[in-house]
Design a protein that fits this description.
The structure is a single chain. By secondary structure, the chain is mainly α. It has a domain of 49 residues. The chain contains 4 helices and no strands. α3 runs antiparallel to α4. Keywords: Membrane, Transmembrane, Transmembrane helix.
Length: 111
């Protein structure tokens, strides 16, 4: 019986050490950072570029259901979604829901 619990204990401890300790250290170190410092602006720019690269890859080279949709539909949904996101005062919920709704309507209409 101890052998079955040992596995779970190892997973919990390893998961905690691999993630939570570093997150708490990041919080402690982050409190001392100047939000307008050059290094933090660079980190923010790199993080934004990585997110945009993944988004572009998903739009141009999709997998799953999106791979059956035309490129014009994916690009149009992303472009309109971004425009509505900006027009709505940069609300993330709007920026996510509008392109998804457009894709669903487009796939339904084409299907």
């Amino acid at each position: 019986m101890f052998d079955s619990w040992w596995t779970y204990l190892v997973i919990i401890v390893a998961g905690f050490l691999a993630t939570d300790v570093w997150r708490w250290l990041g919080v402690l170190a982050g409190n001392r950072l100047n939000e307008e410092s050059e290094s933090l602006l660079w980190v923010r720019a790199v993080a934004t570029a990585l997110v945009m690269a993944v988004t572009a890859k998903l739009i141009v080279f999709p997998t799953g259901t999106l791979s059956h949709s035309p490129l014009w539909l994916r690009l149009g949904a992303a472009g309109i979604g971004f425009a509505v996101f900006l027009a709505a005062g940069r609300r993330v919920a709007v920026g996510v829901s509008v392109p998804i709704t457009l894709l669903v309507i487009g796939l339904w209409w084409l299907g």
